[in-house]
Design a protein that fits this description.
single chain; 417 residues; alpha+beta; 3 domains; 11 helices
Length: 417
């Protein structure tokens, strides 16, 4: 499986380079008596590529024009002839690898960032399509690999069929993720606005991971901070080892296991919290934060002589670390996923002035808030600043949905841990 990962990563990067060349050739045609600036080969005075999708494979199948994935997929038999070691990789796994690349380009055209080349640290999984993998008790059959035992964390219910299967390498071993489907069970539909009975607003924070509009405060465990000392010790041990030695690899593996433990703890906590919120209310409203902008480095400052002066980045560094440890983006994705599963409505609103507005008289003033305390300068209303902001967030969400409903109040009997 390690050998497969290396081969698939090389194939992914090779096909990515081909698609980038084809895209750049169409966007900015190469001029001169050659078609490629890299090789400088004088073939003919063409100034554009034959296909804007890819330069590998056949662009047509009969009279039907192929897309980029189909063109590169038609080149796989020639790849195995030219490089026989690719014959060990199952053909459907190679096709799924190309589909992953095709998805990356579709995301790019939808405005989600330019596709990047994969390093060993960023390419650690491969996929099987449906109806390829077999299960028998605690054994699983992977095509071209064979039968192997695995720890079955939960039983697969009767009537479900296997969909895609992902084999993933992590710091503490190999994992397999199986998607199952039962077409008989209907999908959960969002509740009608007339049937909504409860709603709750949530304010994201650092000390308090979530402050709810019902007055409840959910703490932030700060899992990375709990293992900060152990992680720093293992980082020093890894840096002191001889470069590219076996001891350095072992030390790096021990460090990776610590980081994997932090990820597992945070993920488990977030899933429990997401299910708790879904049981709490029919409408869940969160604030739409620009997380990438919040952890962005400060712009450098220069004086009149051109010398760099302090810009506050050293003080902001600890705050950035805490924001990354909170992992707000992953938390919101999990809440949205669980809300859709149980038919709840998930909504994000603009958090502008939510921490400065009084929920009692709607007076907006920056002097209302003093750190974690909120005291209205107009009506002298006193409350916790984060819970106060969550009330305004929830009301904004209800206003967008057009629902006349009071937010959830009181503490529910069921706990989130």
């Amino acid at each position: 499986m390690l050998q497969w990962l290396n081969l698939l990563r090389c194939h992914y990067n090779f096909c990515l380079r081909d698609r980038i060349d084809s895209y750049e050739q169409v966007r900015q045609p190469t001029l001169g008596n050659y078609c490629d600036l890299r090789t400088k080969a004088e073939c003919c005075p063409l100034t554009c590529s034959v296909s804007k999708n890819s330069q590998l494979g056949e662009p047509y199948k009969g009279d039907k024009k192929r897309n980029a994935y189909e063109m590169q997929s038609s080149e796989l038999p020639k790849l195995k002839q030219a490089r026989p070691w690719y014959k060990t990789v199952h053909s459907t796994v190679l096709q799924q690898n190309l589909r992953k690349l095709d998805t990356a380009f579709k995301n790019f055209f939808n405005g989600k960032g330019y596709p990047k080349f994969k390093t060993k640290q960023r390419f650690k999984s491969f996929n099987y399509p449906p109806n390829q993998v077999k299960l028998k008790g605690n054994k699983i059959y992977l095509p071209s690999i064979g039968w192997m035992r695995f720890y079955q964390s939960r039983l697969i219910p009767d009537g479900f069929s296997l969909r895609s299967v992902t084999v993933r390498k992590k710091a503490d071993g190999w994992y397999i993720s199986i998607q199952i489907e039962d077409k008989i069970i209907p999908k959960s539909q969002p509740k009608d606005l007339d049937k909504i009975e409860s709603a709750i607003g949530c304010d994201l924070g650092i000390k308090k991971l979530l402050a709810l509009s019902n007055g409840e405060q959910i703490k932030n465990p700060q899992f990375e901070k709990q293992l900060e000392r152990t992680k720093a010790i293992r980082q020093r041990r890894s840096s002191r080892k001889k470069r590219r030695s076996k001891n350095q690899k072992k030390a790096a593996q021990r460090l990776a296991r610590i980081e994997q433990k932090i990820v597992n703890q945070r993920t488990d906590y977030q899933w429990k919290l997401a299910h708790y919120l879904a049981r709490l209310a029919d409408v869940i409203v969160l604030e739409d934060l620009n997380i990438q902008g919040m952890i962005k480095r400060c712009k450098p400052k220069q004086d009149e002589d051109g010398k760099y002066i302090k810009n506050g980045q050293s003080a902001k560094r600890a705050l950035n670390r805490l924001i990354r440890d909170c992992s707000w983006g992953d938390l919101k994705l999990k809440i949205q996923s669980v809300a859709e599963k149980f038919g709840c409505i998930y909504l994000e609103v603009n958090p502008k002035y939510t921490s400065q507005q009084c929920s009692n008289c709607s007076h907006i003033d920056s002097a209302n808030r003093d750190k974690e305390k909120f005291v209205c300068t107009n009506c002298n209303f006193i409350a916790d600043a984060d819970n106060q902001a969550s009330i305004n967030i929830g009301r904004k969400g209800l206003e967008i949905l057009g629902i006349n409903l009071s937010l959830a109040t009181g503490s529910p009997p069921e706990s989130y841990v």
